[in-house]
Amino acid sequence: MSKWSRDNLQGLTFEYSDLSYTIPRGNVEVLHSMSGIIQQETLHAIMGASGAGKCKFSPVFGGITANLSSYMKSSDILKTTSRKNYIGYVAQNDALLPELTVRETMMHSACVRLPRLLSDAQRSRHVDRIIRCLGWEHVQHNIIGDFESHGLSGGEYKRASIGVELAAAPLALFLDEPTSGLDSTSALTLIRLLRKLTRAGMTIVVILHQPRKEIFNCLDSLTLLHQGRQMYQGSRDNVRSHFERLGHDFAGASNTADLILDIISSEQKTLTSTNEEAKGEESTNDEFRATSRWTRCNNDVSNSGTKFLPLCRASWITQFWLCLVRSLKQQQRRASSFYLEIGVGGIAGLIIGLSLYSYKGQHMQGIYLSPFERLSSSANPNTPAMIGLMVCMAIGLAASPSGVKTFGEENILQCKEASSGHSQSAYYLGKVVSTFPRLAISALHFTSFYTILATPRMTYWENFSIIVLYFYTIYGLASCCSFIVSRQDGPLMAVILCLIVSVLGGYGPSLYVVKQWHLEWLWRMFPGTWASEAYVDRTFRRSAYLYNINGAAQATGFSLGRYHLDISMILFWGRSIES
Where do transmembrane segments lie in this chain (predicted)? Predict the structure, then answer.
């Protein structure tokens, strides 16, 4: 068992040589033969014009991007497959759950990503230290919010994203344009905070587009890129003298960063790829090969607090429970959406019940049993199948938008957490299980209104079983749509797909006709057919004392005596989608 103390790692030094990266699609090389060093406990900037390859730099070093065309080896401490355990990454458009508070969001990250041998009290104390470092004692219990609700400001949102990564106690932190969208004062405050963190022992790399003078002066070192090629790599103090030696005049320049970016963008043909810090060292340092070496620092930095090395994350069960609790908390704070969903479910059941009210519970009209066949008139055994179609379509319209919302608004967050080492299956299952109470209550309201008004010839719980399982199936189908199409198109796509699945239920065309086409196997692949058969089975069997149900079943094409198989197949269909 590992021992966690202040003697653990306090920073990382990145050394790389002949490093390239090629985008698999199109075989486009966006980083070309880069070499250099990023010292531990420094604030390092990646700068360049748009299209220079800056945004590919951080994912490569953070272990998020794996398609390297040269070597990125690590020491025994940092294996290539576990870089995400040691390095934090904050994307430009980072995603946080708007329903949670700042502290709840940070605690979730700490509980998942810190070593499992730590106690809850230790994790809480670690998060408290991060909050104090960020100066956030007064906003730690504020709801994060989003563009539709009042929450954190742009600068506070950026800090929250950084806090989530710091809660995992990384050894290095990469940030993709953290100052974008911020005013000049907020941007400078954020960069000064990052510089303060480096003095506490972290290695921080930021991508900057066009920093102001005060921000540029906060940097320790930088890498200049143009069209994927490294134009300079070294100390910020030496960059001006380097370009002056190349014949460029800095006299009268108010912002060194602006002039440097102009130079590498307009006169790149006169520049050569330069590494000021590594120049002259390759001949004397045998360890500086065409690999990436990650070294560790054992310095005990004062006032930095306990440094945890995240070797062993929370177990799958713990991650599942944390995701489940988090999702339930989201629903609790989104009460209006919850009540609306229940209301829609109840209204859908009310409408279907009213449409069948005139039947007075007579949902089957068949041929009377012998010897009363001649008394039969206007036999219509297809009514139960029609009811199955109406119920399935109503559930599809009521539940599909809510199912899309379960995952549709969190795709970016889910990808971010997966790249940080969170279990995708634990997250997904936690979200699915959290919807059970919601869909069960919606199904309960639907069933109650429908049963009272339509008075079907089946027990309440038989009816509820069909409806709640079909709700579950629609939720799963709609959630799949949220992964396939955009957030804006998800609800419409889900409604259309759910209607198609419901229509293929054996009413129009009837399953009898479908059998003549030898396509029953295709209809059986959709849950609407099994749901309709369950309604047919319960309705027919409860009318067996009066009608010839075998003849009616043959006329409709459905099979009788398979109610439990029918609801099992609906459940199987839903489980298959969820898996």
Answer: 338-359, 379-399, 467-486, 492-514
